[in-house]
Amino acid sequence: MSGTYLGMPAFPKAAAVSTQNAQLRANLTHATHTIRDKRAKAVAELADWAELRQAGKEIKDRTLRRLDHYLLQAEAAVTAAGGTVHWAQAAAEANRIVADLVKAKGEREVVKVKSMATQEIGLNEALAAEGITAYETDLAELIVQLGDDLPSHILVPAIHRNRGEIRDIFREAMSRWGRPAPEGLTDSPAELAEAARLHLREKFLRAKVAVSGANFLVAETGSLVVVESEGNGRMCLTLPETLISVVGIEKVVPTWRDLEVFLQLLPRSSTAERMNPYTSIWTGTTRGDGPSDFHLVLLDNGRTDTLADEVGRQALRCIRCSACLNVCPVYERAGGHAYGSPYPGPIGAILTPQLRGLTSEVDASLPYASTLCGACYEVCPVAIDIPEVLVHLREQVAEHGTGHRAERAAIKAATWLLDHPAAYRTALRAAARTRRLQPRRLPLPGPAKAWSDTRDLPTMPEQSFRDWWKTRGQENTP
């Protein structure tokens, strides 16, 4: 598999293939059920979870309403603390900024903290085109990179791989990227983790430039926050001389008091932990402590357009916990790659089409990659009503699509009929009088016959509601 989502088919075609992969489905079922069961127990520990969830929703909505204000406040704070702020309207601009910063340091390699924003813009591929190698240091991201694969989950990018597959990837690919896997490596989790640790250690100690994202950006002080479970992020954020952070503009929160709410919501919803083992917070630069050169790249890349949509903007509340993926029956069966985006699952089905636009076959198919069961909304820690946005986006797809000629003709006829009350009343009366002649099923030909054979047409009443109401009014007249 190539390292890019470009050229992937629409969701129905991709899912038709992935759902036939028994090993993939087994891996996903085991992993998602394990994660969501642990999450449910962690959330149940808090009696005020519902109140925390509502608080997170309200903080995000309040911030989005004044996003311009908080972004300028954050820029001023980061600059005052010794950092440099760059604004990137699109992916290409962000990639160019990062590549130029790395080359300005005379470097040809960077270490990376796991970052959805950099996956979104295809930073690794853009840097490679400039002769710069980006080394992923998150364990799951490392597995994906070594396997020339694509991430399939927000929290656990290699969730589609089992331990045996990971062992084989380490044995075959580690030597091409640096230190080879130990001899006799087994699929023991401890041995796999140790192999990754040894492989990455030399990169941590050698790298002069690191690239990260951020889970949150606190506007009042310009502080950035990265939460993680392995410690690789802490190594990237503290050891290199230069740190470049690519952060979506929606990641800003106004105050430290607001941050406290999300530091309770995020770990329980994502890793089912009471708090993340590593919570790294930095503000600009400090002499003798961490990187001496810090750059913040604020990324738009479709977020402003999303913000303008009163229904769709709630997707910008997302804190990338991935809880919605772990309860989604569609994701569990189809897998993350079928979504054709770094953002898979329910949140990807509403976020990707808004960030990229509904212009491609892939993006137009994503709002339909759901049963609308509502499980995603129930577990979302910031109460994003994903089913509502899915229906909203389906409406947009329908408005911009051409549709089948028979469908267009039917809609056109119905529109004319509903616009002419007299004709509508005549049609209702005619339908009532011919009710005994009407078929119980639609006489559809070909493949559509299977659909009609399992669905009865509704029984036509003897009289229309209008005629019934008119008669009732006469009967009740004194």
Automatic annotation (TrEMBL):
The keyword Flavoprotein does not apply. Residues 315-384 form the 4Fe-4S ferredoxin-type domain. InterPro entries: 4Fe4S_Fe-S-bd, 4Fe4S_Fe_S_CS, FTHF_cligase-like_sf, Helical_ferredxn, LUD_dom, LutB/LldF, LutB_C, NagB/RpiA_transferase-like. Keywords: 4Fe-4S, Electron transport, Iron, Iron-sulfur, Metal-binding, Repeat, Transport. Residues 73-287 form the LUD domain. Residues 401-474 form the Lactate utilization protein B C-terminal domain. It comes from the Bacteria. Residues 436-478 are annotated as: Disordered. Residues 464-478 have a biased composition (Basic and acidic residues). This is L-lactate dehydrogenase complex protein LldF. It comes from Kitasatospora paracochleata.
